[in-house]
Amino acid sequence: MITEVSEWLRGASQIAVLTGAGISAESGVPVFRGHSGLWRQFRAEDLATPDAFARQPALVWEWYLWRRALIARATPNEGHRVLARLQQHKGATVTLLSQNVDGLHRRAGSPSVIELHGNLWRVRCADDCGLVVHDVESDPPRTNLRCRCGAWLRPDVVWFGEPLDAGTLQRATTAVEQADVVLVVGTSAVVYPVAALPEIARRRRARIVEVNIDETPLTPRVDAHLRGPAASILPQLEEQL
Ligand code: OAD
Q: For position 90, what pLDDT does the model report?
C-alpha cells in the first residue's frame, strides 16, 4: 500500500496534509482521546471552554502553563521533519494544516502551517482589546497574566464552543478542495469543523490517505489506511518518493 500511496503523491500537483495530536505523540506530547489521552484525566468543560475561563481563569492558565512546559521540553520527531521536507520539495505544492497548538511543525522546519486551533505560544487579550503577543516561549507570562488594558490574557487557541478563525478555515477548505491527495495524520477525526475537511476533499475526488495507529470514523471512507506510528510510516513513504 505504501508504494501505491507514494505513486499518488508523486503524481500530485497539490497535496494537503492534515495533522492531529498523534503526530506529536512520539515527541512525548499527550494526545486528547484514547486510554492515555488528556480528556481521560481532565474534563474539557473545566479547562478548554470560554465558560471555564470566565469562571476560573487561573485554573485554566495553570493547565496551559503545564502543557507549555511539557511541550517546551519536547522536540519534533521524524514525522514532523518528513512533512517539513515534503513542503520544501519542488514537485508539488504541499499545504500543511494542523489542529495542534504545540508549534512542533514550525520547530521541525515547516515553512508554513495553517494552525486551525491556534497556537499555545501566542497569547491575546481575553477582552479583545487588540493585544496579541507572539512567541511567548522564551518569556512565559507566569507572573503577569494580565493584559495592558487590565483584562486577563488568554492562550490564543480555539476552545470548545468557539468558532475557528473564518479566514483560516477558508484557507484550509480551499487547500483540500484543490488537493489531489489529502494525507490525514494522527487525528481521531471527530472534532468539527476540521473533521469535515477530508470529506470535502473526497467529494472533489481527491485521494484520502490516513496514517494512524488505530481506526477512526474516517477509516471506512479513505482510499488508503496506513496503520502505524506517524514517525515510522512517514519516513517509509518519503523513502519511496
Ligand atoms: P485525538 O487525541 O482526538 O486523536 C489522536 C489520534 O492520533 C488518534 O486517532 C490516535 O489513534 C492517533 N495516534 C496516536 N499516536 C499516534 C502515532 N504515534 N502515530 C499516528 N497516530 C497516532 O487528537 P486530535 O484528533 O488532534 O481541540 O484532536 C482534535 C482536537 O480535539 C484537538 O485539536 C483538541 C482536542 O480536544 C481543542 O482543544 C479545541
A: 78
Helix 230-239 and helix 2-11, axial crossing angle in degrees, nearest 10: 60
Instruction: Report the alpha-carbon distance of residue 8 to residue 1 in Å, rounded.
Output: 11
AA letter at 154? R
48 lines ligand 1 (CB under 6 A): yes
* Number of helical H runs and strand E runs in the chain: 11, 9
Q: State pTM to two decimals.
A: 0.96
* Average pLDDT value for residue range 127-144: 71
Domains in the chain (CATH in brackets) are 2-29+76-117+164-240 (3.40.50.1220), 35-73+124-157 (3.30.1600.10)
Task: Please tell me the predicted confidence (pLDDT) of residue 89.
Answer: 86
Q: Which residue of the set 80, 89, 105, 117 is catalytic?
A: 117
CB 27 within 8 A of CB 75: yes
Residue pointed to by grid coordinates 498523534: 22
Query: 183, 196, 189: which is closest to 224 by C-alpha?
Result: 183
Question: Is residue 31 lining ligand 1, measured as CB closer than 6 Å?
Answer: yes
Q: What angle do CA 144, 150, 152 make, to 5 degrees?
A: 60
Catalytic status, residue 80: no
Confidence grade of residue 139 (pLDDT, cut at 50, 70, 90): low
Mean pLDDT in residue range 146-160:
93
175 SS3 class = helix
- As a whole number, mean pLDDT of residues 203-220 equals 97
Shortest-distance Cα residue to atom 2 of ligand 1: 32
Is 164 near ligand 1, meaning CB less than 6 Å away?
no
Ligand 1 atom 14: the closest Cα is on which residue?
Answer: 22
